[in-house]
Amino acid sequence: MGYEKRKSILRGALILLGFLLVAAFVGPQGAEASSEWSERLSSDLKSVFSVIRWKGPGKILTRDMEFGVSPATRILDMKGKRISLRRLPVPCKAEVRYRLSSRTGPHMALEIRVHEIPRSAGLTKGGRLIHRSSTRWSEELPE
Fold it and tell me: Distance (Å, rounded) from C-alpha 128 to C-alpha 119?
């Protein structure tokens, strides 16, 4: 075995030993800090079941709250299929999962899951129920 080969094996063993020592000394504190951080993150996650009354580009309003909607927000229809904000029917009953924000602005919605779409009593010519809900952008803010 050549000198260079032994030297590279020794260097690899020393690097591995260094990683193991760092993990042994930092591991318990790092795991504790990680656990504390994950608890804090999960406590910042909230969920509300409400009627979405208004939508516009990047934002929705429920009865009591305003939420920001980003491209990362998962929006699911009643079958659990992912849809865009543009296809979200309004009004609809939905569960909104969001992260608490320390800012004064709206909370950011992480997930919007549609549970019910209100239907009117009217029928179309084909006999289908007419939805009161629309997938168009809302015209004006509700009062």
Answer: 10
- For 102-116, what is each residue's pLDDT tens digit? 666 678 999 999 999
Q: How far apart are CA 43 and CA 113, in angstroms?
A: 20
- In three-state secondary structure terms, 97 is strand
The span from the first CA to the last CA of the chain, in angstroms, equals 82
pTM above 0.85, yes or no: no
d(CA 6, CA 13): 11
Is residue 125's pLDDT more than 60? no
Distance CA 66, CA 116 (A): 20
